[in-house]
Amino acid sequence: MTEPAIRISEVHKAYGSRRVLDGISLDLARGTKLGLIGPAASGKSVLCKLVCGLEQPDRGEIEVFGERIVGKREVDLGPLRRRIGMLFQNYALFDFLTVEQNVAFPLEQGAAGTLSAETIAERVAARLRAVGLAGSEAKLTAELSGGMKKRVGIARATVADAELVIYDEPSAGLDPVTTQKIYDLLSADQARTGATVLAISSDVAALAGFVDEIAFLYDHRVVYRGPAATIADAPNALVRQFVRGDLEGPLDQAGPGMASLDRSIK
Amino acid sequence: MISGIGAAALRIAQEVGGIVLLTGQVLRALVPRPGAGAWIDGRELWKNLYKMGNRSVPIVVLTAFFAGALMMLQAGPFVKKFGATGLAGWGAGYAVLREIGPILIALMFSGRVGANNTAELSTMTVTEQLDGLRALAIDPVRFLVVPRVIAMVAMLVALTVIGDLVALVGAAVVGKAMLEIDFSTMYYSIVDNLKPYDFLHGVYKSIAFGFAIAMSSCYFGVTVRGGAVGVGKAVNAAVVASAVSIMLLDFFLTYLSA
């Protein structure tokens, strides 16, 4: 049996007194695509950062491609991170670089000296065409709309053909047509490279068309994992209510904010 | 009240400790390491040298000219009164090269370049750009902090040298225009009475000040928490820390060389 791309075991994470993850365990086989869904602030983005080693858990173990990353020094995480592409929820584009330079950055820095300038330019141009941003090469990121920034982020995360790609809200800020085009592009990329994909999205319908399985995070834990195609009919009532957007159901989001929102709706 | 003093002392100790740790990381990054990619990103270094140095020249020239002029304006009446015009250049030069030039230009540099650097780095931090670098296996200290530290130290030294010269010109112009001291008298007063060490003393100080401004401004930039409010606080803290560092370093460096 091949080693999973990601193995998360009993991971706990808190910021001060705020609990974020409470004993999360998750495996992801190589070459598969897993979607993560759940209410806001359920720890989805934190989980992605833990997998990339950008945050360290308080307890638990994380292995990526068979390599333990908990407690590793930054410098030792470098080789592993070069195998991972990551799209951040808030883009994390470098505002001191143009669109073209942002997308070229992983190739110039990660594969330092191994790719010629012409090869890098060709790959960047192809990536920008694929995300519909040809002609925006010389723009600074501050000149872009949210949707355009997201597409630059996708181009940067995928340009190096990483073995593991993490997408944090790939369709946020995109219109439905562009969303579909982007997911088609991500699917084609994954089919071509055979990469393992971990994706977070609030657009569950679009996500379900892209990934193989979906895991539902609730109350700081993974409470359900099942096939993406049948997620709307999942046996778990929490998942069904969340996916269908029903107001009535067992999903308890009645924090102070949600309670007042509920009252104002009624 | 005691708990308040204790909390403030702890916070200061934490900040100083953080700056020392970052200094250690910067010094380590200055040592080339096989397999770690480029030693220093040339593009970042040149960009910062230009931005921090070239663009600071006008304000430094303006400040230095009037600082030198003021030195002469203050000392002039006494020089005239005692007929010691031959010492006017020495007096102005000694004060400018050893003390006024380095400290004034460092404070200007801290306000203009240091504050800007903190604002830039802290904005990058809160918009996850530093995490973006780390995700691409690039050390933000090596990539962003080290070029800025080198640029700040190099440019503050260069600006101090320029500022020293301009301040002496300012003193000579005021000496001539308002106190009728010949340029030649000023020139020989400076050349005959000042030693190269008087100039180098200021240069040594500017190296120390540049490093202190660089480390303070980078530290508060990369450790910022929160959004726009956090950025504002970080800039404020960096400017205060830089000013305090400059004063403390100036005292100890002057004391040690006395």
Feature tags:
heterodimer; A: 266 residues; alpha/beta; Rossmann fold; six-stranded mixed sheet; four-stranded antiparallel sheet; 9 helices; 36% helix; 23% strand; B: 258 residues; mainly alpha
Explain how this protein is built.
The complex is a heterodimer of chains A (266) and B (258). Chain A is α/β, with parallel strands linked by helices. Chain A has 2 domains: 1-83 and 165-170 and 189-259, P-loop containing nucleotide triphosphate hydrolases (Rossmann fold); 87-161, no CATH class. Chain A has helices spanning 44-52, 74-81, 99-110, 117-130, 146-158, 176-193, 204-208, 237-244, 256-265, and strands at residues 6-15, 18-28, 33-37, 59-64, 67-68, 84-87, 164-168, 196-200, 213-218, 221-227. Chain A is globular and about 55 Å long. By secondary structure, chain B is mainly α. Helices cover 84% and strands 0% of the residues of chain B. Chains A and B meet through helix 2 and helix 3 of A and helix 5 of B.
How much of the residues of chain B is beta strand, in percent?
Answer: under 5%
* DSSP strand tally of chain B: 0
Helical fraction of chain A: 25-40%
Order of helices and strands of chain B: HHHHHHHHH
Please name the fourth-level CATH homologous superfamily of the largest domain in chain A: P-loop containing nucleotide triphosphate hydrolases
What general outline of chain A do the C-alpha atoms trace? globular
Largest sheet data of chain A:
6 strands, mixed
* Total tally of structural domains of chain A: 2
Numbering strands along the chain, what is their spatial order in the largest sheet of chain A? 6-7-8-3-9-10
Kindly name the structural category of chain A.
alpha/beta
Estimate the mean pLDDT confidence of chain A: 89
Spatial separation of the terminal alpha carbons of chain A: 53 Å
Task: Please state the overall shape of chain B, judged from the principal axes of the Cα atoms.
Answer: elongated
Name the biggest interface.
Answer: A-B, 25 and 18 residues
